[in-house]
Amino acid sequence: MTSGTIIHVNVIGLMAAVEEAVDHGVRGRPFIVARPDIPRAIVLDLSPEAYREGIRRGMLVQTACARVRALKIVQPHPERYEKVDQALLKAAFRFTPLVERAGRGHLFLDVNGTRRLFGTPEDAARRLLGEIADQTGLVPTVALASTKTAAKVASRVFRPFGFAPLSVNDERELVARQPVELLPGVGVKLLPRLIALEIGEIGTLASLSMEEAQAISARGPELVLRAQCIDDSPVNPEPPSRRMLAGETVFEPDCADPDFLAWRAAEMASELGFRMRKEGFGAHVVTAKLVYTDGSAVSRSVRAGQGASFVADVQLSEAAERAVRQAWERRVRVRKLQIELGGFEPEGPELDLFEPSTFFKAEPGIDSAGLRSRRIAMHMRLQSALDRVHDKYGQSSIVPAKAFLYKEGSLVC
Amino acid sequence: MSDEGLYVGIVRRTNTTPAVHPQRWLVECSWNEWLSDWGMRREASNNAATMQALCVRLPRWVRGGDSSKPGTADIRRSLKSLQNTLETEVRTGRVVFLLAEFPHSFAYNVENRLWLDRVLGELEGLPLVVGFWLDEWYTSRLIEGLKQRNTALCLYDAPRMPGLPPAVEVLTADRVYARFLGRSEIAWKSGHFGHVFDYRYTKKELAAIVPRLSMWRREAEMVGAVFANGRWAAESAALMDRLLSVHVGIELPQGGGP
User: Fold this and answer.
1) What pLDDT score does B250 carry?
2) Residue B10 forms beta bridges with which residues?
3) B109 in contact with chain A, both atoms CB, cutoff 8 A
4) Which of A233, A246, A278, B63 has the greatest number of beta carbons closer than 10 A?
5) If you average pLDDT over every residue of chain A, what do you get?
6) A80 CB neighbour count, 10 Å cutoff
7) Which of A128, A136, A157 is the mutation pick for testing B, counting most B CBs within 10 A?
8) pLDDT level of residue B258 (50, 70, 90 thresholds)
9) Domains defined along chain B, listed by start
10) In the prediction, which pLDDT does A366 show?
11) What percent of chain A stands above pLDDT 70?
């Protein structure tokens, strides 16, 4: 039986696993990784023993301590986790250049075409597992399948210290038998809905028609395809959707004017948008993060609709302004503003094959969709003209009139 | 890697005794074999000659698919007496694993799930290992349930064929038990049941298994590797033992194993 070529490496509870490897004293004991010195600290990670006691990630440390008397709190060591993460990546790159980082301690590898170097994909997966164990002292769960979805589900089932080489013929059935909450994309919001509809297993979800799936959620059809193990997403070493652009402004003195904050956010979004468009992307998410004088931070995101993205300055500025106004929750001065563009997708909406000649007027015989398409085309032409000017003479060569109302802040990108 | 808690062995029905280090020697025996062995030792009150660690396969009625399965009223009593019988042997360290291997006929349905839950509940505290030949059992619910009950899932090294257990490895308890059934697809497809397990593991194949055993040993307190590859079982076990000796650094005593 043949197996797929996608390997998923999953180090369960990386922080706790690293702390356990460093300090053998905590091994076999319930402990959490958290910073108890800050107010309302939360559990960042936990040992399996603590999990069995009912403690969960994100729980308040106070609540966790009340639940387990002998709970040990370990301070987080980000540099250690980063080191282990780099070691994982280094081990993976020995087998293939196609390595995708899917969060800390999570990797996808595609070992297609490496048979003459490392043997069958299963052999390669085993060797990878051994190398990671030797180099880091951690034993991850490794799953081998033909799609990223199947590999992810298998790694969630057979853990910890699991090895699941699924054959192409069996993987669909094995995935279908698992609880629906293990399917990537089913989160805390969707799960109660699925349970209410008596969809407990991935196989039940896979048997839904597209109309039924659409009724469950906007992402329903995509989930049904995943449940059927139909997932053609490649292992992408640098997936555009994971890249992001960010800029920040530190206000001196601190700022308490929401209009000024909104304007600054719009300005930053335009600057970042210029860089983004140069690479041919549009952003699906615009996030604003406000850091108040007392050090607390609030962030809010504005998302483009299904299949859409923010491309033009007008769209980006408006989204950034909205995000800032949503994040502005307290009447406390703001020290720092951060704007982030993420969820990159190929630039722009689909335009007509032939450019329409008239932009502004609704002509007889032209429907609203046609008019909209013309308007989009007009915006894109205007934006590309602006970008050409900015590229040649700098960002300050053309600015919105509103900019003259405010003093300039210090932008750090 | 510590040598303690690492066992290599064979199934008793293969009559050859392999040259295995006495500390590591493990024999997997059936319930009836164990009962007769136990009775003999009680009478002789001298068990020096048979000091190898044992993995006892639980009686057929526990594993389902047997008409002698006790009635509902007797189940608790039967399981309790089973536990009492085995407890002393486990305490003395002679029985290190108890294997309940469920056949194909043990379907994944509510009745059998309840039965499994009852067996695991009643035999709590014993070093239980459960194995399933039907792949429907390999679900997240089972894995999580075994973890809660500190029961090991039997790992199989077998050809990748429909009808054989999937080649997944997962640690659900503080012990690991692996059965090596050979890798000959041709033998399995031939239909001659007497020869399906006959497979001669090469030194290279066994050498590739050593790091796995080493890794399991690092994470679990006890690891058992039993060769059930027909007439080559004794040879494979002996070779594996030698490879482990090199890996661990323990020399084989003069004259081989017991």
Assistant:
1) 47
2) B27, B227
3) no
4) B63
5) 84
6) 15
7) A157
8) very low
9) 6-248 (3.20.20.410)
10) 58
11) 91
- Is A412 a residue whose pLDDT tops 50? no
The more confident residue out of A253 and A408 is A253
Stated pTM of the model:
0.74
Determine phi and psi for A231, rounding to 5 degrees. -150, 105
**Smallest Cα–Cα separation from A140: which of A11, A46, A19?**
A11
Residue A291: which pLDDT band, with cuts at 50, 70 and 90? confident
**In chain B, residues 190-249 whose CB comes closer than 8 Å to chain A:** 208, 211-212, 215-216, 218-219
| ipTM of predicted assembly, 2 dp | 0.84
> Domain boundaries in chain A?
6-10+80-227, 14-78, 240-412
Q: In whole angstroms, give the CA distance from residue B168 to residue A173.
A: 15
Give how far B89 is from chain A: nearest CA, Å: 27
pLDDT in tens, A106-118: 999 999 999 999 9
Terminus-to-terminus CA distance in chain A, angstroms? 52
Between the CA of residue A237 and those of A52, A153, A302, what are the distances in Å? 36, 21, 27
Q: How does DSSP classify residue B26?
A: E
Q: What is the mean pLDDT of residues A201-213?
A: 92
Query: E strands within A94-206?
Result: 99-101, 106-110, 141-145, 163-165
Q: How many other CB atoms are there within 10 angstroms of residue B194's CB atom?
A: 8
Span A213-249, pLDDT tens digits: 888 888 889 899 999 999 888 888 876 556 788 888 8
Q: Indicate the CATH number for domain A240-412.
A: 3.30.1490.100
Q: Is the CB of residue A184 less than 8 Å from the CB of residue A143?
A: no
Nearest by CB: B168 against A160, A164, A169: A164
- Sign of torsion over alpha carbons A42, A46, A50, A56: positive
CA gap A107, A84 in Å, rounded: 13
Inform me whether the pLDDT recorded for A371 exceeds 80: no
What would the CATH number be for the domain defined by A14-78? 3.40.1170.60
Q: Which candidate, A302, A118, A150, places its Cα nearest to that of B168?
A: A150
Note whether B170 contacts A173, CB cutoff 8 Å: no
What is the Cα–Cα distance from A208 to A220, expressed in whole angstroms?
9
Provide the CATH number for the domain formed by A6-10+80-227 in this structure.
3.30.70.270
Tokens 């951690």 sit on residue: A138
